[in-house]
Design a protein that fits this description.
5 strands; globular; 5 helices; single chain; about 40% helix; Rossmann fold; about 110 residues; alpha/beta
């Protein structure tokens, strides 16, 4: 079975405590292909820690990679990134809350 090629947007607390350690433990199922965070220092630190070579500060660069899915782990609003990821053909996992309004939810669902 092929591993799911994942990108993670947001390297803050929830990614550090929950998502990245678990994805790392499940390397037979997931390949961490790229990380994105607005902080160059943080994305480089987490990339070193989890041996992820693609590290960017702009989510659009992450979406240009050959990924099956992206995990959105950053503070709201997530709508713009979620819609862009879906339009790029990626599966999207969104850390709660998905969005803050019905209109934003409709945009994500519509993508």
């Amino acid at each position: 079975m092929n591993r799911i090629r994942m990108g993670v947007v947001g390297c803050g607390a929830i990614a550090q405590i929950q998502h990245l350690p678990h994805l790392s433990e499940l390397r037979d199922k997931y390949e961490l292909v790229g990380l994105c965070d607005v902080s160059r220092q943080l994305v480089d630190f987490m990339g070193d820690l989890y041996q992820v070579s693609h590290r960017v500060t702009d989510y659009r660069e992450l979406l240009a990679l050959d990924l099956d899915a992206v995990l959105l782990c950053f503070a709201d609003p997530k709508t713009e990134v979620a819609v862009a990821a879906l339009q790029a053909g990626k599966h999207v996992f969104i850390e709660k809350p998905m969005c803050i309004s019905v209109q934003e939810a409709d945009r994500i669902i519509g993508a």
